[in-house]
Amino acid sequence: MAVRRLPRPHRFDVYVALGGLLGGLLLVVCRLGVRPSDDPITLFDGHWAVLVPLGVMAACELLRRTAPRTALLTGTVVITADLTTQGNVATVLMFTDLVYAAVLYGPPASARRIPWITGLLTVAGTVVPFAVWRVPEVLLIGVVVGVVAFGPAATGWVVRDHRDAAEAARLRAEQTALLAEMDRVQAVTAERARMARELHDMVANHLSAIAIHSTAAISLDDAKTSREALTVIRENSVEGLAEMRRLIGILRDGAPEREPAAVPTLDGLTTLVDSARANGLDVVLDTAHGTVPAPVELAAYRIVQESLTNALKHACPGRVTVALARHDGLLDVRVTSPYGHRDGPRAPGSGAGLVGMRERATLLGGTLEAGPDGALWTVHAGLPLTEGDPA
């Protein structure tokens, strides 16, 4: 059978117990008691009779923090027994500390009950003796009970209440800091995703054209074709480098003299389509969108740009159609290209473009569908034109 070990006393409690015991012994040596030896309540005469209550009360002080209820119950019995002797001030002071510690360190139920119990004892110690003896002097009994019991209990309750309030404030501060850190991480993640989309959409089109035309130049042994391919490669590399520099300029700190890069708008679709035609695509542009909000305008431009990039990399020879229309509070973006097996050079794809387009539509509360539709590959996006609840 395992023997349960008593909790180890706190170091401060050991100091309190030793201080109370030594102080009480000093009072005994000096023959200083609470009551005279001829007091009627004194049953055990002599200054040495107070040593037993003093020693037991000092032992209870060792449990003031680890077992506060046990210490208080034992101390109550001891202080009652101390009334039969001449008494010792150190014993009384240690009992008041036990009451205080029981409220401060004890369970919440005990902390709520002890002030009420000691308050009722104080009232009873004041009213009952005065009702029995009808002399003003007996009111001091209630005063003593209040000082010894109710005062420490009320003090312990006030200190405990402030301690609990401080602990609650600390927990709220930790939760606030945790939420702030979570918001920061989410903001950083969202910003990284946005930067990745911008970088992909701005550069992928030019790099895809470079890859396709360089493959054609290598595979075809024709000086004219190689020269045309190299011309297209140079144009796309210069434009891609300019786009990259603009993006790096936005991200770089400082440089207040640098003008901010213009955000692409739907008015630039004509230039985008002309660039796609220069890369070899047969593109038809049909727009009837009118004025749209800036976030929707940027998302639509990037979706068209990425769709043309995918058509350049994967589409079969044939016509590519870009159509933008406005109806039912949505900007309808539709890009179709020939779908099927393609001969000739192709640029590798990673699937990041479709992910980026879908993310752009979702952030605005819209939808995007991409996939084969008969002989065509269709990218269809519906972007809300009114401010809603973005995802």
How many runs of DSSP E, i.e. beta strands?
5
Uncertain stretches: none
The number of distinct helices, counting runs of at least 4 residues, comes to 10
* Gyration radius, in Å: 44 Å
Termini distance? 62 Å
Biggest β-sheet: strands ordered side by side in the sheet: 1-2-3-5-4
Beta-strand content:
5-15%
What is the H/E string?
HHHHHHHHEHEEHEE
Helix content class:
55-70%
Tell the overall outline: rod-shaped
Mean pLDDT: 82
Structural class determined from secondary elements? alpha+beta
- Major sheet attributes: 5 strands, mixed
Tell me what the structure shows.
The chain is 62% helix and 10% strand. It is α+β, with helices and mostly antiparallel strands. The protein has a 5-stranded mixed β-sheet. Strand 4 and strand 5 form a beta hairpin. The longest helix has 81 residues. It is rod-shaped, with a radius of gyration of 44 Å.
